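User: Design a sequence. Structure:
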């Protein structure tokens, strides 16, 4: 009987393939039983052969997101790094049909699938150097995992990581205490306005069932989501991602998930002590909700509308002793989705830093 893992053509099409990774069902993600590892078919070395690239990058997506940024992968492949992306349990490819996508009650529940992805990359595929790359919540996930698993990767690279709550000191302290209380009593409690939650997969309130994403989650004006909609081709943007996996407005945020994020933020604030080099990239500008006012989609495409870049820069020293911060003018929250020239600057910054800190790939 064959022991070869089953690889199916990914939703991105060839040469991309997807591998289902079974995980232990946990109360921290009720019912979630798998994650999905995505890579190119040629990443699997022939029996007895070395991988086409000795080095590899493992990418962790953000919240309300999944891997589709193939141009990020191509830039890293060109730089000599095999590219792997992990859609974590409850998220993206792994969250299809899940009761509340991206909803977990402890971020460290994802350690199991990250560990398995790393085992595949190093043991099955034979890569000798691995870099962890994370965006937004995936960036928070990446620094937690790297701190908890010293020596497991050679570097960590971050794309607009979520390292603190975008709010004032009062809300970050007393608000977090309230969220923690709510999470214990009602972890499924939605913490965003119902008009944004309605029509998004996973929404449920007042006894109603979640609505079909195609009916409510993608209708309306571009101003209904000034971050996502100016980027998507449906509203005149540059990109065509799957709105079932990355809807706009986003999947609702629940109390259990937010409490988990705030616990992770406290870990960052106490200092993580990551021993390997860390690169933190973010935009030069950000605009919290109250500051957006009459912002146009064109203005939205030049800054981070999701998180506060000042908080990222302020929290960078808490990650470890070797942290490089690079800010990208005109970058949006996911720097890989930024309009040019910001996108190109981010990609060249990422690959240039890897070459400078880890040496050129051969």
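Assistant: Done.
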């Amino acid at each position: 009987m064959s022991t070869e893992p089953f690889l199916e053509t990914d939703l991105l099409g060839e040469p991309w393939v997807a591998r289902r990774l079974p995980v232990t069902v946990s109360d921290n993600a009720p019912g979630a039983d798998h994650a999905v590892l995505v890579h190119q078919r040629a990443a699997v070395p022939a029996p007895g052969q070395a991988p086409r690239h000795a080095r590899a990058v493992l990418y962790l997506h953000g919240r309300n997101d999944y891997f589709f940024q193939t141009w990020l992968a191509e830039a890293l492949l060109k730089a000599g790094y095999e590219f792997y992306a992990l859609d974590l349990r409850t998220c993206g490819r792994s969250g299809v049909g899940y009761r509340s996508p991206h909803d977990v009650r402890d971020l460290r529940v994802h350690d199991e699938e990250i560990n398995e992805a790393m085992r595949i990359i190093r043991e099955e595929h034979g890569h000798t150097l691995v870099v962890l790359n994370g965006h937004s919540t995936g960036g928070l996930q990446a620094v937690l995992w790297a701190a908890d698993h010293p020596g497991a990767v050679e570097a960590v690279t971050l794309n607009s990581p979520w390292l603190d709550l975008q709010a004032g000191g009062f809300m970050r302290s007393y608000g977090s205490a309230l969220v923690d209380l709510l999470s214990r009593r009602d972890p499924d409690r939605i913490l965003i306005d119902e008009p944004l939650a309605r029509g998004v997969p996973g929404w449920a309130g007042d006894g109603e069932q979640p609505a079909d994403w195609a009916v409510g989650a993608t209708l309306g004006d571009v101003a209904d989501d000034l971050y996502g909609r100016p980027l998507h081709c449906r509203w005149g943007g540059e990109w065509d991602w799957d709105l079932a996996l990355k809807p706009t407005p986003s999947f609702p945020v629940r109390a259990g998930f937010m409490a988990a994020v705030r616990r992770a933020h406290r870990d960052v604030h106490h200092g993580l002590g990551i021993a390997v080099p860390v690169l933190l990239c973010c935009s030069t500008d950000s605009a919290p909700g109250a500051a957006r006012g009459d912002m146009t989609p064109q203005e939205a495409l030049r800054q981070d509308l999701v998180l506060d870049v000042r908080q990222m820069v302020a929290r960078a020293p808490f990650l470890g002793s070797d942290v490089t911060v690079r800010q990208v003018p005109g970058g949006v929250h996911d720097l890989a989705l930024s309009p040019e020239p910001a996108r190109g600057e981010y990609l060249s910054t990422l690959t240039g830093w890897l070459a400078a800190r880890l040496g050129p790939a051969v």
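The chain has eleven helices and nine strands. The two ends are 37 Å apart (CA to CA).
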